[in-house]
Structures are given as C-alpha cells and as structure tokens.
Amino acid sequence: MNSDDRDTEGRASPGMTRREFMGRLGSGALGLGAAAGLLGGWSGPAEAASPKARPAGGWPDLVGVKDGSPAQMFDVGIKALGGMGRFVRKGTTVLVKPNIGWAKTPNEGATTNPELVGRIVRSAREAGAKRVLVFDHSVEREADCHRASGIAQAVEDAGGEMRTGENRSDYRKVPVPGGKTLAEVEVHALYLDSDVVINVPVLKSHGGSRMTSAMKNLMGVVWDRKAWHRGGLQDPIAEFPLVRKPDLNVVDAFIVMVENGPRGLGTEDLLLKKMQILSADIVLADAASAKTLGIALDAAPYIEKAARLGLGSMDLDKKRVKRISVSA
C-alpha cells in the first residue's frame, strides 16, 4: 500500500481494506492529522508531574495530552490536573460513565476505549474508592455492547462493577433547575446518588448534534432519549447538566470518528489522533473537543448555550490550559 491509500488527514481511503486499516491503527502508522486543535506549547511528561501541594496559580482548568496509549495519557493528564485524589476520596462510591452505546470494537471509534476505562477504574480504586461502578444506557443490545466494546472485561479486570442501564425502575424523575426545554427528566439513580461521577466520552461526529463529547455523553444516563431528539438536541444537551455536572470529564480522542457518527459507516470515517482531554469543566472540555474535531464552536450551539447557563466556560484562551506530549 502506498501513500495514496490515505488522505492528508490520516483517514483511510475507500480502497483500504478493514484489515489493512486495523493493522495501521495497531502500529500507529496513521498520522495525527488534524490533531492540532490544541497545539501550541506542548511540554514533556516530566514537566507534568503533580506537585505535592496546589500550585500558586491553581490547578490547570484543562489538560490536553497527546502521543501516548490511552492509559499513558490518562496517567500523565490526571497528575497534571492534581491527581485522582483531588476528585476521589477514600470510602466513596464512584460512577464511571463511558460511551458503550454500540456493539462496536475499540478500533471502530464508536465507543470509549476500554484501556482508558479500565485505567480510570483502577485509578479510582487506588485513590481509595469503596466501589467503582460503570454503566451506560446502550442504544443497541446491552450485552453485545458490553462484550464487543471490551469495556466489561476491562472493568472487571480493574476491580470495578458493571451495572445495567436497561431497567426503567433504576431511573428517577427529577426536576431540571432553570431548564426551559427540559423541565424534568428520568435519570439513572447511579448518576444521581454516586459520590463522584467521572464522565468518559469518546469524541466523534454526530448527525444530530454535530459533535458528541462530554455533554452529549450524558444522554446515556437518561431513560427517554427519544424525547431529546423530538425537541431538537441542542437545548436538552445544554440544559441537562443543570441536574448535576460530572466531577471530572476525560474525553477519549484516541481514534476519532470525524464523519458519519455516532455509529459510523466504515474505516474511512476514522482518524487516529492519539489525544485525550481532561477537565472538571464540562463546557471547557467540549470547547476543546470541538477544536480537536476541527469544527467551529458555533457548529455545536449547545456549547454556547451551556456556557450562558453558567455551567462552565467556553473560552480556552482565558483559562489555564496545560498541553503535554507523552513522547516529548
């Protein structure tokens, strides 16, 4: 295969076979392409070591990491953000919420990378969490999604517990304070009751909302997702965090589905970006996600809508952003 078999952004061409593309994913042969969304001033991992005390200027508002495995990037990123102990206290119950919506394998970019999910579960356990629970309200058959994504096995190996999103009895109807489109919503009890919520979306395109990342991933904790689609996705996505914001958002941008999301049509929709975004600010995480995906902020209007609701900042230039290259 020659260089004509992929485009200038590292996408597979229609002529590339699935086996060839997956082989290239495994070997890292695809370029970072449009991974320049957060480029500028990348430091090495040694400079990202977590200090023993909060730095004088405060912890970064957002950390962007590139050029490592999902587990490597998380380890470096969470240290730069202050360590997992900043978010998880001893004896707490932690919910890890990945995207497990589709019966797709990790290399298909439709679900959160299982290596990343497992590493987050293990890190929460190491920080002293009493229990670490994982679930998503899958779109396709739950058991198939858990198995194909590799997430159920990764969670078990890391000492976490998988939970189901299929039982309506596990959801509670709650008000949305200040919501206009969403007055009330049925939310899974684990999202409402866990001491800590770690939101772990996979970054990809979406036909309805243009992008799915941190805020859109929370559709997986509600029962009636179709109602959001009927009313238009932008307002419900923006308003839902009024119920509760995650304590930490870790955006998986290792393999990014840049077109035909959220399920994808083929390998030509994928880019190997080898990136990760970590932030306690869900709006800021989505603003960085949009740049990484290569779209303008106004292409996903829910980001600005959420910022106007006071749910976070969309202004990366005015926030403390730490950029780390694992390979530097």
Q: How would you sum up this structure, described in words?
A:
27% of the residues lie in helices and 20% in strands. The radius of gyration is 18 Å and the shape is globular. It is built from eleven helices and twelve strands. Strand 5 (171-175) and strand 6 (184-188) form a beta hairpin. The chain is α/β, with parallel strands linked by helices and 328 residues long. The relative contact order is 0.20. The strands form two sheets. Strands 1, 2, 3, 4, 7, 8, 9, 10, 11 and 12 form a ten-stranded mixed β-sheet that branches. Helix 2 (70-80) packs across helix 3.
Task: Furnish the topology, listing elements before pairings.
Layout: H1 18-27, E1 62-66, H2 70-80, E2 93-98, H3 114-126, E3 131-134, H4 142-149, H5 151-158, E4 161-162, E5 171-175, E6 184-188, H6 189-193, E7 196-200, E8 202-206, E9 210-212, H7 214-217, H8 225-230, H9 234-239, E10 248-257, E11 270-279, H10 282-293, H11 302-308, E12 321-325
Parallel strand pairs: 1-12, 2-3, 2-7, 3-4, 7-10, 8-10
Antiparallel strand pairs: 1-11, 5-6, 8-9, 10-11
Give a quick precis of the structure:
The protein is α/β, with parallel strands linked by helices and 328 residues long.
| Largest sheet, strands/sense/barrel | 10 strands, mixed
End-to-end Cα distance: 29 Å
Report the order of strands and helices. HEHEHEHHEEEHEEEHHHEEHHE
| Count of distinct structural domains | 1
Helix content: 25-40%
CATH architecture: 3-Layer(aba) Sandwich
Mean pLDDT: 88
Q: Beta-strand level of the residues, as a percent range?
A: 15-25%
Tally the helices: 11
Name of the CATH class: Alpha Beta
